[in-house]
Amino acid sequence: MAEKILRVNMTTLTGAFEDVPSEWAGIGGRALTSAIVAKEVPPTCDALGKHNKLVFAPGLLAGTPAAQSGRLSAGAKSPLTGGIKESNAGGTAAQNLAKLAIKALIIEGAPVDDSKFYGIQIAKDSVKIVEATELVGKRNYEVIKTLSAQIAPKVGVLTIGPVGEMRMAAANISVKDPDGNIRSHGRGGLGAVMGSKKVKYVTIDDTNGTGTPIADPEKFKGAARAFAKAILEHPVSGEGLPTYGTNVLVNVLNEAGGLPTKNFRTGQFEGHDKISGETMREIIVKRGGKPKHGCHAGCIIQCSQHYVDEKGEYITSGFEYETIWGFGANCCIDDLDTIARADRIMDDIGIDSIEGAVIIGVAMEAGIVEFGDGPGTLKLLEEIGNGSPLGRILGNGAASVGKAYGITRVPVVKGQGIPAYDPRTVKGIGVTYATSTQGADHTAGYAVATNILKVGGFIDPLKNEGQVELSRNLQIATAAIDSTGLCLFVAFPALDIPETLAAIIDMLNAKYNLTLTGDDVIALGKSVLKTEHAFNNAAGFTKQDDRLPEFFSEDPCAPHNLTWTMSDEEIDEFWNF
Amino acid sequence: MAEKILRVNMTTLTGAFEDVPSEWAGIGGRALTSAIVAKEVPPTCDALGKHNKLVFAPGLLAGTPAAQSGRLSAGAKSPLTGGIKESNAGGTAAQNLAKLAIKALIIEGAPVDDSKFYGIQIAKDSVKIVEATELVGKRNYEVIKTLSAQIAPKVGVLTIGPVGEMRMAAANISVKDPDGNIRSHGRGGLGAVMGSKKVKYVTIDDTNGTGTPIADPEKFKGAARAFAKAILEHPVSGEGLPTYGTNVLVNVLNEAGGLPTKNFRTGQFEGHDKISGETMREIIVKRGGKPKHGCHAGCIIQCSQHYVDEKGEYITSGFEYETIWGFGANCCIDDLDTIARADRIMDDIGIDSIEGAVIIGVAMEAGIVEFGDGPGTLKLLEEIGNGSPLGRILGNGAASVGKAYGITRVPVVKGQGIPAYDPRTVKGIGVTYATSTQGADHTAGYAVATNILKVGGFIDPLKNEGQVELSRNLQIATAAIDSTGLCLFVAFPALDIPETLAAIIDMLNAKYNLTLTGDDVIALGKSVLKTEHAFNNAAGFTKQDDRLPEFFSEDPCAPHNLTWTMSDEEIDEFWNF
C-alpha cells in the first residue's frame, strides 16, 4: 500500500488520491505541511481566500508502535499572523490517516456559493464530500459525538466549532481523542481557514487500513524500546508530567518570577497555589477524575487528565499549564473550576485556549470585565461562540482586542498572543517569541527547558548571553521533531540522554530503510525553518516583525525588575545559520 | 517676529517655544511634518504609545494673501496604516498658527495618569495646558461652540470627538472653519493619536499676532494676482468646482464606469442622478442653503457649501464627492438627505468620512445592515460615536470590519480604505492607491485628472501604459504642493496653465527672499516622498504592501469588465526615481 496525497478541491467539491512527488517522499508532519504550503500557496494571498490551502500531515513515525508518535501537523497561511503556520495536535486522526497510507490531506479552493458547509468523509481509498447542513452551528463535543454515532465509534474526526465557521482568526481545529473528547490544532487560526473553505468536519474511517510496512521490524522494535526507556527515565517526561501534567509549571514559573500576571504586569501570582499542578492533582484524585491520560494511543507520558466537577462529572481534558496560567495568573482568576469551565467552553466553540487567555487578559486591560472576574470571563467566552460584535472582537485574537480598544499593553508577536512565560525573566523564550516563523509560540523553541528546568544544561534566564544560540538550536531541533510526528516532550530526554536521539533515528531508518544520521536531522530542522522564513519574507515580513511589543522594553517585571533588553542586532543574529 | 517651533510635552504637561533648526527653515506643511516625524518618531513604535508624536504645520504660504493658502498639515505615525501619515485640512487653524509665527506644533509624550483629558491653549508667545474635563465625551460641533464662546469668537480650534478619545483608528481631527463649522484632517486615524496623548483640543488665539513679513511685497502681489487669475480661468477650478463642488464627479465617474458601486462590485450606480452634484446644487438653491463656500479665508474656488434640510436648517458643509460616492453608490443609498445626515454625524463624532463610507460598505458586505439601508447606516454611525463593541469594530476602519467578520472583499491598501474611483477602470489612481506612502489615498497623486478629466493631457484609464509615470509625477508634484499649504485643487490650473507654477514659485521667492526654480520644487516633492518611504520601510513595510486587495485581480468591474492587471514588477517601478 503506497503512500498517497489526498487532495480535496472545495471549488469543484471533488477529491482525488495522488502519488507522492519524490521531493516530499522523505518528509512528514511539519516538514511536509510547510513544504506544501510554501510550494502551493501564494505568500501574499488572502488567508481566508480561495488561494490558501489547508494541509494535514501525520509525522514520519505515525501509525507505528513508537511511543508518542500520534501527533498531526496542520498547515496553511495563518489568518492570525499573516505568515506560514504549522500547528500540531494529538488525538486519533494522525494514526487514522497513517493507517490509510495518507501522507497528506490538502484542502484547497472554496465553494463559489458560500451558503453551505460540507463534511469530507475519508475511508480506505475513498473520499466523499457531503453537505453538513445539520451540523452547522453545532459545537465540537456534539459534532464528534454525532459523527462517531453516524459513521463508527472509532472514526477519526477533525472539526471546527462556530468560531471557525465564523472565520475568526483565533479559531482552532478540534481533533477527536481516544475517548471522544477534544485535542486541538490551537494556534494561528487554522479553524478560520477550514471555515473559509466551508468544511465543517473531516472524518477518517481507517477500517481495513493497514498503513505502510516497517522495513526492518526487529531493528524498529529495539529502537522503540530504547526510546520508551529514555522517556520514562527522564525526571520531566517520566515523573513530573505524568504526575502533575504540564500544570506542574505553575509553581515552578512562579518561583522563578516568570509567571506573567495581570496581563504581563508582574511575574508572580498571589493565588499560584490554588491553581498549581499539585492542587489540581489533589482535586482530581479527591473527586474521582483521571489524573493521567494519553492524548493518543501509544502515549506513555500521559500528561493529560480528566478534570471533573464536585460530582465527578467530566468537565475537560488536555487541561494545560498554558491555559491555567492564562486564565489564572494572567487574568487573576484563582479558581481551577472556573478555569476548567473556560477550557471546556473554548474546546467546544473551537477557539485556541492560549489565544483565549491572552484575549481575556487584554479585555480586562480594556476594562470590559475586571481582572479576577471568573463569571464575567465565562460570559465573554460564550459571546465569542455566539458571534456577537463583542465576541467577534475577542474571537479575532488579542491584537484585535487591543486595536478595538486602543490600548498598548498587548502581548503579541506577529499578531499571535504570547504564552505563559515572561520574556523579561525567561529571556531565551523571549528570543523564540520574537524570531519564530509562527508568531509568539513557546513550543517553537522551548528555551524554558534550559533557562528554568535545567534540561540540556543551564543558561541563566535573566541574562542575554547565550539565549539566541539556545533558541536557535531548540527551534531547529523542534522543527525536526515536529516532522516525525513525535510529541514535543520527547525533547526532554533527547536533551539529556544521548540514547534518545539515536533511538529516534534508528526508528526512522528501520521504518523507511534509510541511513539517516544526526546531521541529517539537524539539516532537516534547518531546512524547515528556512522554508518557513522564506514564505514569511515573501508575504511581506521583515526583521521588524521579529520584535517584542514596546512595553516589555519599558516596564520592568517584578520580582526581578528586569526589562527586555535584547538589541535588534542580537535578535537578528538568529537567522545567521 | 522669527518663526518658532512650539513643542508640547504631554508627559510633563509643559510647552516651550524653540528656534527652528536650519534643516527645517525652508520647508513647511507636509514636507515639515514628515521631516519631523521621520527624525523624531521611532518607525517601529506603537502608534498609540508615548513615542509617537503629533505634528501640525501650516504651509510655506500660510498667513499670506495668496489664494488657497490656508491648508494645515497634520502628521504622525498612523494607527490605521502603521506607516507615516500626513493629512491636510482647511479651516482657520493654519492661518492662526502662521499669524503667531508658529511654524510647527509638536505634541509628544503622554500623561502617565491617563484618566484625564487636556486642552492646549495657544496665544501670542504663550501656551497653557489645562484640564478639559467638562468637554470629555462631547462632540465636535459643541466643543467648537463652547471654546469659541469661552476664548474668542475667532479662535482657531483643533478638536477630537468621542471616536478620537476612544482611540479608534479611523478617528479624525476636526478643524474649525470660518463659520464655526467643521473641516477635517480625515485620513489615517490622527484623531486616535491625539486621543492617546489625552489632548481633547488645541485652541489658537492669534490676537496681536502679525506673522512673518513678506520680503518683497510688490513681487508677491503680482504673483498672487497671476496665480488667482489662473485658478479662475481653468474650467475645473474656475467653473466645475465652484458650481457643483467636488460632487461634480458623481456623473463624470458614473459615465466613465469608474464609480465603485455596492462595495466595489461594479462601476456604475443606478441612482447616480439622485446624488449628483447637479441635483445637490438644485436642492441647496431651492432650500435656501449656500451652494458655494470657502473652507478658509482667501479661498476663491469655494467648492464647499452649506447643505440644508427642507426647512433651510444647516445640516453639513464640506460635503464632498468622496463621502457622497461612499454612502451613495458604494452603499447603494440614493438619498442625499440621508448622506448629509451621515456626513454630519461623522464630523460630529470625529471619524474620517471616506473611511466611514468604506467601513459601512464592508459592514453591508458582512450583512450587518442591508445595502441601501439609510436609517440602518445612520444607526451604525451612532454606534461608533457611542463606542459599543460593534461601534469599535466599525470605528477601527474597513480592514477591522473585514477581519471581524472574516470577509475578503475589503477595499483597503495598507489598512486604509480605498476611495471613490475604481482602480480597475481608472488604472492611474490604482497605482497611486498601491504605492502611496499614505495607504489608499486619491489625493496623494490624483491620476483621475489625466485619466478622466483630461487635465494635463490624457492617458487612457483602461490601459496599464503610462500609469506608473503619471502617478509618480503627480505624487511628486502633490508632495510639493502639500508643503506650500496651498489647496490641492491648484493642481488643475498648474497642470494646464504654465503661469500657475511660475506664480507659485514667485510667491515663495517673494515671501522668503529665495531663488527657487521649478526644479527645486520637483526636488522637494521627491525628497518628501523618499523621506516618507524610508520611514515606512524602517517600520517594516515592503513591496508586498504596495499591492491592491486580491479581489481586484479576480473580479471584473462592469461595464468595462476589466480586472486589475498591473504586474508587481510594473508597480515596483514606481520607486525608481
User: What's the architecture of the domain at 4-204 in chain A in CATH terms?
Assistant: 4-Layer Sandwich
How many distinct beta strands of chain A?
17
Most extensive contact: A-B, 39 and 39 residues
The best one-word shape of chain A is globular
Write down the CATH class of the domain at 4-204 in chain A: Alpha Beta
How many alpha or pi helices of chain A? 25
Q: How large a portion of the residues of chain A is in β-strands, by DSSP E?
A: 5-15%
Give the % helix of chain A: 40-55%
Descriptive report:
With 577 residues, chain A is of the alpha+beta class. Chain A has a domain of 201 residues: Aldehyde ferredoxin oxidoreductase, N-terminal domain (Aldehyde Ferredoxin Oxidoreductase,  A, domain 1, 4-Layer Sandwich), CATH 3.60.9.10. Chain A is built from 25 helices and 17 strands. Chain A has a six-stranded mixed beta sheet. Chain A has a six-stranded mixed beta sheet with strand order 8-7-12-9-10-11. In chain A, strand 16 and strand 17 form a beta hairpin. In chain A, helix 7 packs antiparallel against helix 22. Chain A is globular, with a radius of gyration of 22 Å. Chains A and B meet through helix 6, helix 16 and helix 17 of A and helix 5, helix 14 and helix 15 of B.
